[in-house]
Design a protein that fits this description.
By secondary structure, chain A is an alpha/beta fold. In chain A, 38% of the residues lie in helices and 28% in strands. Chain A has helices at residues 42-49, 80-87, 105-115, 121-134, 150-163, 180-195, 207-213, 231-236, 241-253; strands at 2-13, 16-27, 31-35, 57-62, 65-71, 74-77, 90-93, 168-172, 199-203, 216-221, 224-229. Chain B is 57% helix and 13% strand. Chain B contains 17 helices and 13 strands. The chains are: A alpha/beta, B alpha/beta. The interface between A and B is medium-sized, with 25 and 20 residues.
Chain lengths: 254, 503
């Protein structure tokens, strides 16, 4: 069963069409990287899938449950309760972390499981400590976000997303706000999540990382999927001119 | 090169200013050849001095002053003054005399007086259908007098008769008001039951207000008006006095009195002599006075504190509700709230207090109880400050990054949880500096309660200053406000520090 299936997604901002007829299916344990130049629509696609943006056309379903159906060409969102339930299936890690500045590290991780999912406190805290240890932050539980480095903040954000036990995780350029040496520590965390068979969709500019960790790579440009396939096909042996140009530019830059 | 240009410019500017100042000064000196004579008066005291329909200051006293100036070759300057500040105006030389139905009785020692020129009595005015027919009917009623007026002195002053003191004691309350116009508004609305005032003014007010009111037959006291000069300024007093006698001799004085319907009240006589008061000294020491005045002001401080705390208590949560309306998705609600904020921020708080206090009667015909005065103060302040707080909250909410909302949504928080758990605490931190400003302003704004004659500290200070002819009470009030705000600033700084645990 596919965890996520979207068909014919359309999205415009004012008069600018950002996504044109995008379809995508994500299987369990699959790791997908989305590459593309800025303005290509890759972040918008991720935000639509995370339901931070509403779509203008197409349908979406998560774990076989309909979130958006297409009724005579226009999208209809499911009931509030259904959307709320579906939101629990996925987590999102932001480029700018978006930790809650007034909560300590441990509270950032435990507050939603306790007050949104209403799980027992002791269980939530127990799991939170395990997550912190996994992220190498066991001594930072009482720190506030401003006292941490960017890489540490992003690891807390990943732990916060994982504490909700999502079936899949979205990453919106998770290393773009970080210095190169901090980027490595985040990529290490993502790699270990992939090893644990976490289903992930990652919007990224890290070509080497995408090549080594992804099951599938998607290259987007101008609001469409230009090329899609295994890392070998798309990154090492691109067919489309636009993909070639992008990859050439990226390799020159790095 | 550039530097030279700048300094050249600077010199030109300095020269120009110097030139403007010196020429202005010369004009000023030239004008001094014709001496100006500045008369201080209460612009709301007809028929002695008031503003007529065309906006001119007119009245019996001003006509007399005009005539005196004409005969002496002086230029008359009519200076309307705040009655409570009359002594300061006189002491600083801002005015030359107080010429305004100015009662001599009880003030003999405080000014250098002309001989009395009007004999006036204190009378009681009630509403026509009030059922009050004589002075005994005033028992248990609320009676208004102007602050530091002769009516107040006749009822409670040191020289008041036993009879009058007992009468005042029988009132439910003796309310001090700033001016007669607001006193009559109060009387008409039923907020007070009677006004004690001068007979000349009373006759004029009754006639001009369409006979809605009547005067009780028995007078409270009789008194005389004179023209008051700064204690010791006998030179100017003598000049004015001589001219008045001259006017009395040739009939001009009586003619002006007739013009204002005061021919039966005037009593100027060339046989009268001056009061000798040149050797008056205040016997109390400075520290004694400081302490006694501080003690008097303490009563008002309580009232100011009550306004302050109750306003904060009600306006801060109300502001949050208003912000919710202001940021609502419902366009009509958003517009209503926008208009509310615009009006409350765009008109004077003093005016809003008047509307809240008099509105129920003059708009809806509802008689409000005497205790409403205090409620009106709190309601007026709360409505006004809530509008300001609402805008401060809104700015604080909008300063919270969009990512915080998105993170909360992704984690599944409900709208209510998102606001109270995530946004609100960050908003509070954002707005502390603006709130501190607003709270400090509120401390000082409490003095605006005087607009509806609610006696808080500043009003009290002005009353005490007028009664004791010293500005010390105002200074002491200033010290009290400063200490009050010092504490407020300290508390706010403490809260700000407490919130520094996050950034």
């Amino acid at each position: 069963m596919s965890l996520l299936e979207i068909n014919n997604i359309e999205k415009s901002f004012d008069n600018l069409q950002v996504l044109k007829d995008i379809s995508l299916s994500v299987d369990q344990t699959e790791v997908i990287s989305i590459l593309g130049p800025s303005g290509s629509g890759k972040s918008t696609l991720l935000r639509c899938m995370a339901m931070l943006e509403t779509i203008d056309g197409g349908d979406m379903s998560y774990c076989g449950e309909k979130a958006v159906t297409s009724v005579s060409g226009s999208p209809v969102y499911a009931s509030k309760a259904q959307i709320k339930k579906i939101r629990g299936y996925f987590g999102l890690v932001f480029q700018n972390f978006n930790l809650f500045p007034h909560y300590s590290v441990i509270k950032n991780i435990t507050d939603a499981p306790i007050h949104v999912q209403r799980r027992p406190k002791s269980e939530v805290y127990e799991e939170a400590y395990i997550l912190l240890k996994k992220m190498g932050l066991e001594d930072k539980e009482n720190y506030y976000p401003y006292q941490l480095s960017g890489g540490q903040q992003q690891r807390v954000a990943i732990a916060r997303a994982l504490s909700m036990k999502p079936k899949m995780l979205f990453f919106d350029e998770p290393t773009s706000a970080l210095d190169p040496e901090l980027t490595a520590e985040i990529l290490k965390v993502l790699r270990s999540l992939a090893d644990e068979k976490m289903t992930m969709i990652i919007v990224t500019h890290e070509i080497d990382f995408a090549r080594s960790v992804s099951d599938r790579v998607i290259f987007m440009d101008g609001g469409i999927i230009v090329e899609e396939g295994s890392p070998k096909e798309v990154i090492d042996n691109p067919q489309n001119e636009r993909t070639k140009a992008f990859l050439k530019k990226m390799s020159v830059n790095s | 090169m550039n530097l030279k240009k700048i300094s050249l410019l600077r010199i030109t500017v300095i020269l120009f200013i110097t030139y403007a100042l010196t020429t202005g000064f010369t004009f000023y000196c030239a004008a001094d050849d014709n001496k100006t004579f500045t008369v201080g008066f209460d612009a709301e005291f007809p028929p002695y001095g008031y503003k007529d329909e065309s906006g001119e200051y007119v009245g019996f006293d001003l006509d007399l002053a005009e005539e005196v100036c004409e005969r002496k070759g002086w230029i008359l300057k009519k200076q309307p003054i705040d009655w409570n500040s009359k002594d300061m105006e006189l002491k600083t030389g801002a005015i030359d005399c107080i010429w305004n139905g100015f009662t001599m009785n009880g003030r003999e020692d405080k000014y250098t007086w002309t001989t009395p020129y009007v004999d006036n009595s204190q009378v009681v005015i009630v509403k026509k259908d009030s059922g009050i027919e004589d002075l005994s009917g005033l028992a248990g009623k609320t009676v208004a007098v102007q602050s530091d007026s002769s009516a107040l002195a006749a009822l409670t002053g040191d020289d008041a008769t036993e009879e009058n003191k007992n009468l005042a004691a029988s009132f439910k309350e003796l309310q001090q008001v700033g001016d007669y116009n607001s006193a009559f508004l109060n009387l008409e609305s039923g907020a007070i039951d009677a006004i004690c005032m001068d007979i000349g003014v009373a006759n004029y007010e009754i006639k001009s207000r369409g006979n809605l009111f009547v005067m009780l037959d028995k007078h409270i006291s009789s008194e005389e008006y004179g023209i008051g000069f700064l204690l010791g300024n006998t030179e100017l007093r003598d000049e004015v006095q001589e001219t008045l006698w001259e006017m009395l001799g040739d009939g001009t004085f009586l003619r002006i009195a007739e013009k204002w319907g005061l021919e039966s009240s005037v009593c100027l006589s060339a046989e009268d002599s001056y009061i000798d008061n040149t050797s008056m000294e205040n016997s109390q020491s400075l520290i004694e006075r400081f302490l006694s005045i501080s003690k008097q002001l303490m009563g008002g401080l309580g009232a100011s504190l009550a306004i302050f705390f109750l306003t904060l208590l009600f306006s801060m949560p109300l502001g949050l509700l208003i912000t919710a309306g202001r940021m609502s998705k419902l366009t009509p609600l958003r517009w209503i709230v926008k208009i509310y904020i615009s009006i409350l921020r765009g008109t004077p708080l003093m005016l809003q207090l008047l509307v809240v206090f008099f509105g129920p009667y003059f708009i809806f015909g509802i008689n409000t109880p005497a205790s409403y005065r205090f409620y009106a103060v709190i309601i007026g302040f709360t409505l006004n400050y809530a509008a300001y707080f609402a805008e401060i909250y809104r700015s604080g909410i909008q300063a919270v990054p969009k990512g915080q909302y998105e993170a909360a949504d992704i984690l599944g928080y409900s709208r209510k949880q998102r606001f109270f758990k995530i946004i609100f605490p960050q908003m509070v931190k954002n707005i502390i500096p603006s709130v501190t400003n607003e709270v400090i302003t509120l401390v000082k704004d409490t003095s605006l309660a005087f607009a509806i004659s609610y006696t808080e500290m500043f009003t009290l200070a002005k009353q005490v200053a007028a009664a004791e002819t010293t500005i010390m009470p105002l200074f002491i009030a200033g010290i009290f406000y400063y200490i009050f705000n010092f504490v407020v600033a300290f508390v706010m700084e403490y809260i700000e520090k407490k919130l520094n645990y996050f950034r």
